[in-house]
Amino acid sequence: MGQPLRVREHGFSLIEMMVAMAVGLVVMAGAMQLFSRAMSATWTVSQKSEMQQDFRAAANLLTQDISLAGSGLSNANIALPSGTGTAPVYGCDQTPKCWINGTAVAYPTQTSSGTIYYMYGLIPGYQLGPTINGVKTDVITSVYTDSTLSIANCYTIALASNGLSATFTKPSTIPTACALPTNVTAIQNLNDPVVGLTPGDLLWVKATSVSSSGVASTRQAVAEVTSITGSGSTYTVNFATGDALKINQPTAATGGLKALYGTSMVVSATRLMVVSYYLDNTTLPGTPRLVRQVSGHTPVPVAENVVALQFNYNLYNSGAAVVYADGGLSEGLTPNQITAVNILHLSIRSQVKGTVGYQGMDLQTTISGRNLTFTNSYPL
Known about the structure:
- With 380 residues, this protein is an alpha+beta fold.
- It has one domain (50-367).
- The chain contains one helix and 22 strands.
- It has one helix at residues 14-67, and strands spanning 78-79, 89-90, 105-106, 109-110, 116-119, 122-125, 131-132, 135-136, 139-145, 156-159, 165-169, 202-210, 216-224, 227-231, 234-238, 266-280, 289-294, 300-304, 306-317, 320-324, 338-349, 360-367.
- Strands 6, 9, 12, 13, 16, 17 and 18 form a seven-stranded antiparallel beta sheet that branches.
- The chain is elongated and about 140 Å long.
- The chain starts with 13 loop residues before the first helix and ends in a 13-residue tail after the last strand.
């Protein structure tokens, strides 16, 4: 009977195990590095995509509002209340709080016949915004009429003698001169939950009288809505003093709503959109954001991490086209001479700093407001 076969089983030696572990660690390190790079690339792409989306939204809104500057105003510069020592302002809401660099901004003035405040279709705000990264930022305000609410020539309006309210009556049939918004078939209620008047809205009120010789005369004023009551066909719109924008000043020597009151006056009103863009770095310190504020309403954020907002303006003065950073105010020129707006910097950066710094995008373009002053620079 033969001897049983003995097979000696050997395990890994210590040296073999150490070599295998070393090789495994090298492979794992390589895999981790590839994974880290992939995650970093994914994060970078995600950040860039979000930044591009915010940038596109900000640029589209800003250029759209600037291009509408002066629309419906017929090149009118609307005189605001003057002579009381209180300046009409923009940049405040109903809380009340003023937002433009923590304060309010007064409308520009003309001094040809006393200091009178004016509302223009486009209002520059040179270096009125906060300082970001050591650079002062600008503010820009576009003014145009709102066509989403059927007020003008649709309601019969009676002004109160004290200039603090007005009664709006909706007629049973649509007047011939009433222009309804697109796809609207009936005169809207003033308290409509979507497009109706709310506190903070601005109304451009015109009162026309005809003399015995048939000559028509029109006076105009701006009033801030502080409350609205009524329903159905009759509404009372109030313009109380102490409003956030300092527009309602019945004691003003000029520009006040009270001056429009009179007998045999035909009164019409249109809602104004006073749209301001500026940077805000108070809500989220260290994270400046571009905001859009309409009239006396609370500003709405448009894009985060916007770190620069600067403009200059093309003006037509004495037969020559000139560029001014402040819209020509330093030269005694008025905003109604502006022909185009140049966006010098609308700069946005990524939320998180990468290994080589922030990602960023910068818009530089020129916008010709369709309703601003136009002069043919190339006459035949």
